[in-house]
Amino acid sequence: MLSRRTTMLAVLATLALPTLAAAQSTEPSERPISMEDARRIATENGVARIEEIKFDDGQWKVEGRDSLGSEIEIKLRASDGAIMKLERERPASAKAGN
What we know:
Blueprint: H1 4-23, H2 35-44, E1 49-56, E2 59-65, E3 71-77, E4 83-89, H3 92-96
Antiparallel strand pairs: 1-2, 2-3, 3-4
């Protein structure tokens, strides 16, 4: 017959296993950002009108225009929404004046 101490250790080890397995997981804990999140981030960074949005190779690519008509391209890392690239091209009419 098992001693009381051995039984108690076995019960504690059984209870601790799921916690240890979860702590050692190598899979990402968060899902990639959604298309709606990508739209929101683009809007927060000056895109007034989205013309194209697509997901490719772990990134969201958003193309559109700001409130003055300048073209904007934003690339977002899908894992956390970080901006990897932000380019703004002013219209030819704005360039002519400078």
